[in-house]
Amino acid sequence: MIELKNITKWVTNGGNRVFLLKDINLDINEGEFLSVMGPSGSGKSTLLNIIGMLDDADEGKYRFLGQPIHELKEKQRAQVYKQHIGFVFQAYHLIDELTVYENIETPLLYQNTKSSERKALVADMLDRFNIVGKKDLFPNQLSGGQQQLVGIARALIAKPKLLLADEPTGNLNSKQGEEIMAIFKKLNEEDGVTIVQVTHSEKNAAYGHRVINLLDGRINHHA
Amino acid sequence: MLKNYFLIGIRNIWRNKVFSAINIIGLSIGLACCMLIYLYTMDELSYDKFHANKENLYRITSTIVSPDGSKNETGITGMMPGPAFKNSIPEIESYVRIQNEGLTIRHNNEVYDQEAQYVDENFFRFFSFPLLSGSPTTVFNNLRSVVLSEELAIKYFGTRDAIGKTLELKFGEDFEPFEVAGVAKTTPQNSSLKIKVLLPMKFAESRNKDTEWINFYLNTFVALKPGSNITAVENKFQQVFQREAAEQLKVNAEKYGFKEKVSFGLQPLLDMHLSTRFQAMNGLYDASNPVYSYILSAIAILILLIACINFVNLTIGRSLKRSREIGIRKCVGGQRSQLIVQFLGESFIVSVIAFGFALVLVNLVLPYFNTLANKALSFSYLFNIKLVLGYALLLCVTAFLAGFYPALVLSGFNPVKTLYGRETYGGKNYLSKGMVVFQFTLSTFLIIAVITIYTQFNYLTRYDLGYNDKGVAHVSAGRMDKAKLDVLRTELMKHPGIEKVAADQGGGWITGARINNGTDITFDYKYIDETYLPLFEIPVIAGRNFSFPLDTANGVIVNERFVKKAGWKNPLDQEVDFFYHNRKMKVVGVIRDYHYASLNETIQPQLFTFHPSHSYNDVYLKISSGSLAGAQDHMMKTFKSFFPFRPYSIKFKEDENLAAYESEAKWKQIITMGAILTIVISSIGLLGLATIAAQKRTREIGIRKVLGASVYGIVRNLSLDFLKLVLVAALIAFPIAWWATNKWLENYPYRTEISWWIFVSAGMLVTLIALMTIGFQAYSAALAKPVTSLKAE
Q1: Could you say which of A25, A36, B69, B469 has the lowest number of CB atoms within 10 Å?
Q2: The domain containing residue B407 runs over which residues?
Q3: What does the pLDDT average to over B61-70?
Q4: Shortest distance, CA B706 to any CA of chain A (angstroms)
């Protein structure tokens, strides 16, 4: 599903190139559950953002479902990730001014889904995550775990093939964290959603089929 | 989608009440100003457009060029051009002459002063003024017929149905009965012609047939055949004039030394209202200068612009808060164009709300604005598709102006940076700073303008005119000779409060005479009596005042300017030759120059005579202070008994002098309002920016406090950034204001000096206002406990 070849990204700081990622080669198959680990600043999030097409690599090739992403224009790329990729963030990143219902609905609005269909899909999602009763609340009226559920619901509403999660349990207590990981596992096994998660926790990493370790922008094969 | 945008827009407005209030208040005021000016301009441009044949109606103009090259352009003519041109020029279909006349009307033994107009018989066919009763074709058939406006029919007869009723009009010493032959519907507001009392021109001609071409006192309108060549018609004017007036011109040149060149032209009726070259006067009303529209529009647009700047600055200033939302939206598939639409939508919502408030505001201030602008504007009166479209356009332009730039900037945020908090929002932000500078440049400029206008106004109204206008009452009495004046004087002075009584012929009169056996000199001419100069305390600096009957035959008094112009070393006993009356006069006295007219005019040569044949009209009474109330009754009784058929009204010379500066007084108010609004809107914008700055720097302030900074130190630190901008603004405003106020003052022959203190105080005022605005925010930020502010991060 995902082929990364020699992906390199740098920033220029005081005339020197500081590499965030260096020569990353990585293949991810459809249906895989991959955990990315590594210390702070090792390039985990950068890698995730490049996979999620939020960020460009400075060098290297990226094929997603056979399409050469590095050759696509901004608009075409947006079209690809809008359809196939969902994001979950450590800080949830819900829109404060929108209710739970409206937050979940937002991606559908950008895909011009019909109103009746939107209603059905959102209702379905609320039901699935057991948050029907919270649909008219605003994010600041929810606990962290509940907010992350909304975040996941939003990521899944458009039925993505790939779910990218950046430390999804980082702000949660262990019980909430376990619940979220259980949901991920179920999604991966039952719905066949490909998942790439960045995590600090060995325990959470273990939910994945495969773990890669990053260190200073390279994949560390010795870990 | 739109619903989603709308919801988030409304919720954003609601959650940020302070910033929303700043934006909405500013935009409401700006929009209200623009709406008012739009109404004003629409009214100005709508003048005289209701005439069916408007495209083909013109006024005949006259241009008189003196031998020295000076040009006198006027929109008036005499009796001759209308009929003469119509007879000889086939392009002219018809003409109408309109001559203003002050009438005295008697009805039910009451006497009224009434402005009236003589018009040619085809008046109601020529113009599109509907008659409520009477026929447009026959209304002036009778020599002694009169057409009244609706209001005057009600005033005199208590009903619109006044046909066949009689009014008595005074001609000479007699009243003659006139029959009401028509009642005209109330003239539209936006008409240069205002129907009051119309009399047939043929009646005026039956009393006094004027065949002089070189005579300018009435308006002549012509209807041209559609498609006529204007220049060709104007050329024919000169040919006809040269042919028909040849004899008169010859006589004038021989007898009076008339050497001026006269030519006639055409002015489209629709250009008349706003023409400064050929003004609508002499029985036409509301003549306006387009510069008023320009200046008012400029002020209104600038105020709106300043409000839009607030919106832009505050939206961008708070973008850090919105950046996360933008990142999320991009992450879940939002495209930049969709985000631009969203943000423009939000500025549109704010503008619509402001628009609603502005409509209310306009309705509230319209009466005040009407007095200020001397108009009777209302929504209903100008309501049409153009108004609706204009306002809709105004709304859209405002929303776009306010929203476009922030939408562009905000939608450009990179989601990775915003979501991971890596965006550094330091930046120099030159644009935002530049806009603050612009706002305060304008504020400073307007403050300087206001102070200058006030200073000039005070200068004009407190200037020593060279005579004493205090306690002088002015009554337009009616014709009287010296003998009657003396009797009147004796009668009036029976009241102890009346100290002196004097008279002149009333009104201004400019004429000429010959001096030094050859030079012609033009001067302001007054008939006065022997009390006139003492009453006004005008000093005689050489020779003496008139004395009776010594100087009545051939004595004149002149002013210093006259002496200077004549080049006399010894003015006394010099000869002034009124050659066209065959009368040689001698200078008996010279007075010190005084400002007989307003200070908008320079003092011209002046000449006074005191001849027994003079008829006086206006009476001046010097009333000792405190005795006016007691003297009023005596004055009225006396005047009523001497002039039973004259309406009696009393004015004070001081008020009349003040009235000359009415337009300055209006501008003073308008510019002051403009300045206040500009400053208020700029200041609330600055308040918003200071709030944002304080919020952004909460952590920094906390750290500084932990390190031992004082509250004063922090306030200074926070305020200085903004104060610098205000000072830069003041420095930019100074030279512009200096130039503009100088330019404005050049219009006044008597003007105040522009001194440094105006600039210093304007600069200090703006700084003070800014300091108070920022200081308040800075102070409360500095007072915050460091514990809370540091934890918040």
Answers
A1: B69
A2: 1-47+290-425
A3: 87
A4: 29
Q: What span, in angstroms and rounded, lies between the C-alpha atoms of B410 and B322?
A: 8
**pLDDT of res. B414:** 81
Of B58, B64, B102, whose CA–CA distance to B82 is shortest? B58
What is the nearest CA distance from B753 to chain A, expressed in angstroms? 58
Q: Is the pTM of this model over 0.90?
A: no
B419 → closest Cβ in A89, A95, A109: A89
What pLDDT digit, counting tens, does each position of B754-791 carry? 889 999 999 999 999 888 888 888 888 888 777 666 65
The pLDDT of residue B789 is 61
Sheet of strand A67-68: strand arrangement: A16-28, A2-13, A59-64, A67-68
Interface probe for A, chosen from B332, B417, B418 (most Cβ of A below 10 Å), is: B332
- Determine, yes or no, domain membership for B249: yes
Give the Cα-Cα-Cα angle B86, B87, B91 (nearest 5 degrees). 50
Which comes out higher in pLDDT, residue A55 or B594? Answer: B594
CA distances from B16 to B20, B24, B98, B514 (A): 6, 12, 63, 80
Residues of B with Cβ-Cβ distance to A81 under 8 angstroms: 333
Total tally of structural domains belonging to chain A: 1
Contact indicator for B284, B192 with CB cutoff of 8 Å: yes
| B279 domain-assigned | no
Residue B418 has pLDDT above 80, yes or no: no
**Are B120 and B247 within one domain?**
yes
Q: How many domains does chain B have?
A: 4
Count how many Cα atoms sit within 13 Å of the Cα of residue B410 in the half-sphere of its side chain. 32
Cα B254 to chain centroid distance, Å, stands at 43
- Assess: ipTM above 0.90: no
Contact residues for B635 (Cβ-Cβ < 8 A; gap 6+): B473, B475, B492, B495, B498, B621, B650
Contact residues, chain B, for A102 at CB < 8 Å: 4, 7
Question: Which residues in chain B are contacts of A75 at CB distance < 8 A?
Answer: 335
Same domain, B604 and B736: no
Question: Between chains, do B7 and A75 touch, taking CB under 8 Å as contact?
Answer: no
Say if A214 is an interface residue toward chain B (CB within 8 Å): no
Beta carbons within 8 Å of B45's beta carbon, 6+ residues apart: B274
Distance of residue A202 Cα from the nearest chain B Cα, in angstroms: 23
A154-208: per-residue pLDDT in tens? 999 988 999 999 999 888 888 888 989 999 999 999 999 999 999 988 899 999 9
What is the pLDDT averaged over residues A141-164? 92
Cβ of A97 within 8 Å of Cβ of B325? The answer is yes
Surface-to-core class of residue B462, CB atoms within 10 Å of its CB (0-12 exposed, 13-18 middle, 19+ buried): exposed
Per CB-CB distance under 8 Å, the chain B contacts of A107 are: 332-333
Mean pLDDT along residues B505-514: 83
pLDDT band of B421, cuts 50, 70, 90: low
| Continuous segment of H or E residues that includes residue B510 | strand B510-515
By the 10 Å C-beta count (0-12 exposed, 13-18 middle, 19+ buried), B220 is classed as buried
Q: What is the pLDDT of residue B792?
A: 46
B653: in domain? no
Tell me the CA distances in angstroms from B264 to B63, B72, B77, one per residue in order.
Answer: 6, 12, 9
Two tokens, residue B21: 């209030």
